[in-house]
Write a structure and sequence with these properties.
Blueprint (H helix, E strand, L loop, with lengths): L1 E6 L3 E9 L2 E9 L3 H15 L4 E6 L28 H9 L3 E5 H11 L8 E7 L3 E7 L2 E2 L33 H5 L1 H8 L11 H21 L3 E5 L8 H13 L10 E3 L7 H12 L1
Parallel strand pairs: 1-4, 4-5, 6-9, 9-10
Antiparallel strand pairs: 1-2, 2-3, 6-7, 7-8
Helix pairs in contact: 1-2, 3-8, 6-7
Length: 284
């Protein structure tokens, strides 16, 4: 039996199953302080029976280098008390099983990649647009890492002509993509979520314009055939269509693969992250 954790800043989603796409049981606990949250998660897994392995898909930033003594740790997160928390180490010691560890978005990208026909694509990008904006990239079935993991939400986009004044909410970069188009940025600018604003409000076009720049950049730089857009903001009616339209306008028919490059919603719905965690367990 495999175990999986989708570790988020608000909640931990826990699951077990014989395979990543067959979840037998799941449980959700609120994210509190590390000691309480991790102990509750471990208690639940122990009640499910003996695990073969555990996969953790975590909010970040995290250390993914297996050669590093800090592998499996959360680093400089703004989540109080969680900086330096060794997620992987805790569960290795407590459950005595192999542990796979990845970012939540890389794990979701793995799951969405696996949910598609093997001949449909050889690479995929997954982007979540919610409290923050983050992205994972899978090439040939393998998540892409460099000196750290990708931080797609912190690219600096071209400003929309109707959005020149707002400084952005990112504490590091101000008007990076996350600072302009995340859920908190939308609320800070217009006083409510995107889905609560009227469909003819300028916010819809502005947010789509920024997200389309990320999609165009990913298509141009990585040549992925599919970009999956998930997260709470993307549940806004009409937003996906607007992003597709703006991405097409940005490309102007230039990219040689543009006729088969697609922007999609998650095939797994809200289960992309936890399914990815179970994939990490299987691989471990």
């Amino acid at each position: 039996m495999l175990g999986g954790i989708e570790a988020g800043g608000t909640k931990f989603v826990l699951a077990v199953g014989a395979s990543p796409y067959e979840i037998a049981a799941r449980h959700v606990i609120p994210t509190r302080d590390p000691a309480t949250t991790l102990a509750d998660a471990a208690d639940w897994f122990e009640r499910q029976g003996r695990l073969s392995a555990l996969g953790i898909a975590s909010f970040g930033p995290v250390v993914l280098d297996r050669a590093s003594p800090r592998w499996g740790q959360i680093t400089t997160t703004p989540k109080p008390g969680w900086s330096g928390c060794s997620l992987a180490g805790f569960f290795e010691r407590r459950l005595q099983v192999p542990v796979g560890f990845e970012t939540d978005v890389n794990a979701a990208a793995l799951a969405e990649f696996g949910a598609r026909e093997s001949g449909e694509n050889n690479s995929l990008a997954y982007v979540t647009v919610g409290t923050g904006i983050g992205g994972g990239l899978v090439i040939g079935g393998v998540p892409v890492h460099g000196v750290a993991h990708p931080e797609m939400g912190h690219m600096i986009p071209r400003r929309h002509p109707g959005d020149r004044v707002f400084d952005g909410v990112c504490p590091h970069h101000g008007d990076c993509l996350e600072g302009l188009a995340s859920g908190p940025a939308i609320t800070a600018r217009w006083g409510m979520s995107l889905s609560e604003l009227p469909s003819n409000h300028a916010a819809h076009e502005i947010v789509a314009f920024y997200l389309a720049q990320l999609c165009h950049t990913l298509f141009a730089m990585t040549a992925v055939p599919i970009i999956v857009l998930g997260g709470g903001v993307m549940q806004t009616d009409g937003l996906l269509g607007r992003v597709r339209q703006h991405a097409s306008l940005l490309d102007r028919g230039y990219l040689p693969g543009s006729h088969c490059q697609r922007i999609e919603t998650p095939k797994l719905g809200e289960d992309s992250g936890i399914t990815g965690a179970l994939i990490l367990a299987r691989n471990a």
